[in-house]
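Hello support,

Our group uses your service weekly, and this is the first time we've seen a run hang past the timeout. The protein is Arachidonate 5-lipoxygenase-activating protein. I'm not sure whether the cause is the sequence or the server load. Input pasted verbatim:
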Amino acid sequence: MLSVMLKMTPQQSEPDPQFILENMFEAVMDNIFLLVLVTLLSVVQNVFFALKVEKECTGQHSKPHSAAFERLSCANRNCMDTYPTFLAVLWCAGICLSQAPAAFAGIIYLVVRQKYFVGYLGQTCQSTPGFLFGKRILFFLSLMCAVGIINHLMLSYCGSDYKEYIQTITKAASALLLLP
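Update from on-call engineer: The timeout came from a worker crash unrelated to the input. Re-ran successfully.
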């Protein structure tokens, strides 16, 4: 791979810097594309939540402090409270370990967060399953982060690299997230 990155023409004694930058950009994008996609989907979901709150607040027949507005506002606030944690563990798990299981868990988390938000609009007890499932996904992503960091430290200090084995396990374990 290094020989491909160091493409030289017969007249040059040094590699072409533009070619190296293009290859580095492609390599980085290959490693984070799914994470970027999940992040953008989560932003769209946040916009949807904000629009629902705004619509309820400015509705013709609604009062600013009605019960429906309070539930919507509380659900939106609860979703926004966990949002930074979700983004941090999503990106950490994807970069330190494997982006595919992290992105899959991220998509499942967004679906669960939608279920939580919609469940909160009814009775608050309807949102409990979404809340608990979301906690489980955040725990899985946090575990992926910790394992990825530990593997990196083991590689740096002990010379042992278990990343391939760990990635196989996390890919299999991410499917278990679908179980209720």
